[in-house]
Each structure stands twice: as C-alpha cells, then as structure tokens.
Amino acid sequence: MLAGKKIGFIGGGNMAEAIIKGILTSGAEASAITVAEPLPARRDYLVSKYAVITSDNNLEVARQADIILLAIKPQMAAGALAAMKSAISADKLVLSIMAGISTAFMEEFFVSGVRVIRVMPNTPAMIQAAATAICPGKNAGTADLELAREIFLSVGTVVSVSETQMDAVTGLSGSGPAYVFTFIEALSDAGVKNGLARATATELALQTVIGAARMVAETGEHPALLKEKVTSPGGTTIAGLHALENGRFRGLVMDAVDAASLRSKELAGK
Q1: What confidence tens digit (pLDDT) does each residue in 42-53 have?
Q2: Which CATH number fits domain 7-169: 3.40.50.720, 3.30.1360.120, 1.10.645.10, 3.40.630.30?
Q3: What class is the 176-267 domain?
Q4: 3-state SS track over 11-69
C-alpha cells in the first residue's frame, strides 16, 4: 500500500529514525521519504545513514507528502500544526506519535476531511520490536488504518484501540520500557549484592527477562499460571514473591502506569 506514496516526517529524532529504518527494511524507497529536521547535524546524519531527503522547512515537507508523520514533542503541537495548516489538504493522511495529543485537537487545525490517525509506539521500535497502538480520527477509514498498520508493523506489533484508551496505552506500553529497564537494573544490582560479578549479574538478569517474556508469548499461558509452575511449596521463589508482595510490587507497577497515563492527559490539557 505504501508503493508510490511520499512520506514526510516532521521531526527527525530517535523515534522517527526507528520508523524510517523499519519502512526502508520493508522495501520502501529512500527517495520517497523526506524528513523536516531543524538541526543541521541531524539532517546530515539521516542523509548519510539512510539516504533519505531532508529539509529544515516543515511546511514544504508537508506540502509535498502524501502521508505526514508528526514526530515532534507534544508541547510543540499547536505551533507546528498552525504553521503547517495551509499545506494540509483533505487528500493527505496525517499520522501522529505525539503523546497525549488527540485526533480531535489536530483536526481542528485542518480543512474539513483531513484523515488523522493517532499512534503510540514505544522505543523498542529502534530494534523493530515495538508495541504500537493506533486509533483513527473521525475522517480516517479502513484503508487509512491499514496503511498505518503497514507502516508500524515494520517496527513491531500493532493493536487498534479507541481514542479513550490511548492515554492508558501511553502509560503502559509507551512508558513501559523504562519500567522494564529499571527492573533489569534492579535484578542486576541484587545479584551484585549477593556476590555475583556485575557482568554476570547483568547477563543473567537480562536473559531471565527475555526468557520469561518469550515463555508468555510462545506458550500462550497466563502469566499467573507460569508463575505458579515455578513456585514450589516452601521454596526459594515463594520467599522472593513474598518479599515483592510486602513491597507492593504489583501495586507500584499499577501506580507507575496510572501516573504516566495521567501525565499523558495533562499534556493534552484534559
């Protein structure tokens, strides 16, 4: 579906780069991708590594593109959208990865009929292992959603959700990699505390998380059942789980998702 389409990125940061890498790997032509990026050094890097076209002019990139992907900070949304308003015609598809910015907010800046899709990927997109959620605005149709799905399948998995669920997605999978990184770091620290060399502790912690995640994905079993299988009566695992429960481990994870979801709403002025 991307064949013959020109894609314009507004913003050339890490997430934009991850998406560019993904769609190029999936067969898109570098000549079909233009990136608007204010930093000259970043533009030079993207050209040298991916052979895409770059510009410092958001308006010109938006005017030339069939698909416009907004990869800028949410705090910049109003100014950037207002500046590009004249270039966004009803025949264009706008994809946004701006956290907290609703489709309705974006649609207010454009002429009637512009199709907008809100997207929330996460940073594992950089290694084509993202968890991405998409939701359509009022004018986006099935073909538009399939096009968005094609783009983001190039960097991982994609689920469709309602607009009202996107703040929860932001708090869970959008911010979630940081929670997992912190957990891996804590496991490694615990290994060191108990006498392991740092490199050994980190290797064991990392593979434990990878292996456990793969078990959930590949067996299809509920995490609680898999946990039960490794928890022997009176054994070491139940002792460790008891300590986690005393520390409100699960409650703290829920609190973290709640806090990040709330911040997503605050960024949108909700």
Answers
A1: 999 999 999 999
A2: 3.40.50.720
A3: mainly alpha
A4: CCCHHHHHHHHHHHHCCCCHHHEEEECCCHHHHHHHHHHHCCEEECCHHHHHHHCCEEE
